[in-house]
Amino acid sequence: MRHLLTTLSLIWMMLSPALAQRPFDANAANGLQRLVEPEISPDGRWVVYGLRVADVGKDKYLTDLWLAPSAGAGPRRLSFGGDIAGKPHWQGADAITFLAARGSDEEQKKGPQLWRLPLAGGEAEKLTDIKGGVEDYALAPDGRRAALVVMDEEPDPEQAAGWKRKTPLPIVIERFHFKQDREGYLDGRRKHLRLLDLASRKVVALTSGEFGEAAPAWSPDGRQLAFLSNRAPERDRTEATGLFVMPAEPGAAARALATLTTDDEARPAWSPDGRLIALPTGDDVKWSAYQQWRVGLYDAAGGTSRLLGAGLDRGWQPRLAWTPDGAALVGAVDDDGHGQLARIALADGRVQRLSGAGVAGQASVAADGRIAFLGGDWARPAELQLLEPGSASARALTAHNDDWRRGIALSMLREFSARSADGAEVHGLLALPREGRQPLPTVLLIHGGPNGQDAQELSTRTALRERLAAAGYAVLLVNYRGSSGRGQAYQRAIFGDWGHLEVQDLHAALDWAVRQGIADPARLGVGGWSYGGLLTDYLIATDTRFKAAVSGAGSGNQLAMFGSDQYAVQYEREIGLPWTQRERWLKVSYPFFKADRIKTPTLFLGGEKDFNVPIAGGEQMYQALKALGVPTQLVIYPGQFHGLSLPSYQRDWETRFIAWMDRHLKPQQTSAAK
After folding, report:
1. Strand, coil or helix: what is 509?
2. Which of 146, 148, 167 is nearest to 156 (CA)?
């Protein structure tokens, strides 16, 4: 069925020349608009969501709130400053709350605050004024209170003594897990829960102490809060998370319901009757980097727990929503290059797919059973969809990207499968330019994670795929072992053995493309970001057939990453400590220690402040190739973390990627252009 849908999409694109007016270039990538965080109103009449756009002049991404009626009359814009930090929620049916950093420069420095916007008209009102800002929040069912997640204030002993410090305090580290991308070096401060009375603006502490809390969720009667907290004795050395419940009162004691593993984006979801709490749940903490989330059900009174849908060998996305009758949960499932909206029944764990090919997610359910979610496919950016009770298919409520899409020529995408060296079946996507004689110069574009998948979507994440195809390249996107969407065994196959089975799978896909006459074996390139950058380093150290490579936010010397990046806990569990497992560390670091095998001209890139895969990983590989006389270049993005946050830098990395491929895979064309 999926292959049929892909074929029909290809025919539709080929028979619609009016849709193909200009190639997918940097301007096209900047024009893509992204919908985020939809939430349907309790009565099902409206859906609020964020719309994120690139402002080229300001070189930043701006987000505003929009409101779409379920009746389909067309959305309207609610905010105009582009300063929404996220998390729009309904306060009854009359107002919307959200986070934003607004006001003077001094006020914005405090961080995002909680705001309320009445739908009847008028300006948004500021509800909090907390130094450091509000990181997350949950509204009580009656809309009169909110549970806030707030970071402890940074102590300054010198200021307390009367000094006026103009320079930052020294950073004092005592933790095992002491650094995190974007958060920086981790000190002793924690994130705690505070209770806000929206009428009086009074804020009181709900929790305090050495443990941090996250993801608050109110019980339906408004009397209790569920939240997540790692309270293990050695909490810095485990991702095990505690699910707790406490009365929504200052000084109340919290009860532990369970210790489990869950996604960082997960939030407890109370059943309508308040008896159960649903939460995406993984297996033993050993598998934290390769978890396939299942639906966990926990008795709010502290009784039994169980996992739903044990026979479904696919993982759920982090957010789950209850149906109004409490008989099922709604979420999205990653499945072999697709993401499908699904319903899972409490009675028997039966799973019903609610959407077809493409990618769907971020579901929100109203009291009348209507489901709002985001859905799209490889030729359509995700838009807001509404699924009515009893309906077989959803209808679109928004069309923000329709005009943009009509003016852009997209690649032609198809699914493929290949057989790896050990017999494993590997699936992927092939993007082809609309014109060009085969065999074509071909780029193996590798996704990061590795716990993720290349899917049939069109988004800012897939802009490089489209730009490469527009430049005349065949693009191979391979869901190698370690990827999600193909089952638990497939996902865990690379545990403690990086750069082995993934490399086999990627080579198998490339061999398939060559045998099919699609890929020109004399013009092969490879590249990726994050784990895609790591795998690029592994591939060029394994095979010299690549004529160009681009390694973004990667590393070849994993031994040097211990203590330099944020993964010490995973390393200790999966590889062992370097002084006890020296050979294993050297094995997974072979791109650096066997750099003399590399002949491929390689471009290395990364963010200056990246703590996920520090820029040192690229610097070391660059220095090695420079010493060996292999053509290479190093590009560092100032002030950037693991993900590039400025439109100009995102377009720059894509442009440099294509230019590097052109230089080495199309040398004659490049010379002629000069």
Report:
1. helix
2. 167
Residue 254 scores a pLDDT above 70: yes
**CA 275/CA 224 separation, integer angstroms:** 12
Q: What is the pLDDT of residues 491-528, one digit of tens each?
A: 999 999 999 999 999 999 999 999 999 999 999 999 99
Tell me the angle at which helices 463-470 and 647-665 cross, rounded to the nearest 10 degrees.
40
Residues with Cβ within 8 Å of residue 500, at least 6 apart in sequence = 494
pLDDT for 58-94, tens place per residue?
999 999 999 999 998 899 999 999 999 999 999 999 9
Number of C-beta neighbours around residue 500 at 10 A: 17
Provide the domain limits for residue 557. Answer: 410-666
| Residue 544 lies inside a defined structural domain of this protein | yes
Alpha-carbon gap, residue 176 to 304, rounded angstroms:
33
Residue 662: which of 443, 436, 411 has the closest Cα? 443
Contact 142, 162 (CB under 8 A): no
Give me the DSSP letters along 49-65.
Answer: EEEEEEETTTTEEEEEE
Residue 100 CA from chain centroid, whole number = 21
By DSSP bridging, strand 602-607 and strand 632-637 are parallel
Categorise residue 234: left if φ over 0, alpha if ψ from -120 to 50, beta otherwise.
beta
Phi, psi of 446 (to 5 degrees): -105, 125
What domain count does the chain have?
Answer: 1
Q: pLDDT, tens digit, for every residue of 129-141?
A: 999 999 999 999 9
Of the candidates 341, 403, 334, the residue with the CA atom closest to the CA atom of residue 374: 341
Q: With residue 588 as reference, give the H or E element that holds it.
A: helix 582-588
Cis before 439? omega within 30: yes
By three-state DSSP, how is residue 449 classified? coil
Report residue 336 CA to chain centroid gap: 17
- At 164 the pLDDT is 67
With contact defined as beta carbons under 8 Å apart, do 551 and 527 qualify? yes
Please answer whether residues 453 and 361 qualify as being in contact, where contact means their C-beta atoms are separated by less than 8 angstroms: no
Q: What is the CATH number of the domain that holds 539?
A: 3.40.50.1820
Three-state secondary-structure class, residue 105 = helix
Query: Is 165 part of any domain?
Result: no
Of 562, 403, 427, nearest in space to 486 by CA: 427
Closest to 280 measured CA to CA, from 229, 331, 221, 335: 331
Structure tokens at 392: 């077989």
pLDDT digits (tens, 9 = 90+) for 367-395: 999 999 999 999 999 999 999 998 989 99
pLDDT per residue as tens digits for the range 16-46: 444 447 999 999 999 999 999 999 999 999 9
* 425-432 vs 474-479, strand pairing mode: antiparallel
Instruction: Please check whether residue 555 lies inside any domain of the structure.
Output: yes
Torsion angle of C-alpha atoms 205, 49, 80, 43, degrees rounded to 10 = -80
Helix (H, G, I), strand (E, B) or coil at 173: coil
pLDDT-derived band of residue 260, with 50, 70 and 90 as boundaries? very high
549, part of any domain: yes
Whether the CB-CB separation of 85 and 112 falls below 8 Å is answered with yes
Alpha-carbon gap, residue 651 to 656, rounded angstroms = 9
pLDDT in tens, 399-433: 999 999 998 999 999 999 999 999 999 999 999 99
Give the long-range contacts of residues 81-87, CB within 8 A, separation 24 or more: 82/53, 82/55, 84/50, 85/112, 86/36, 86/37, 86/50, 87/37, 87/136, 87/137
Residue 94's identity, in one-letter code, is D
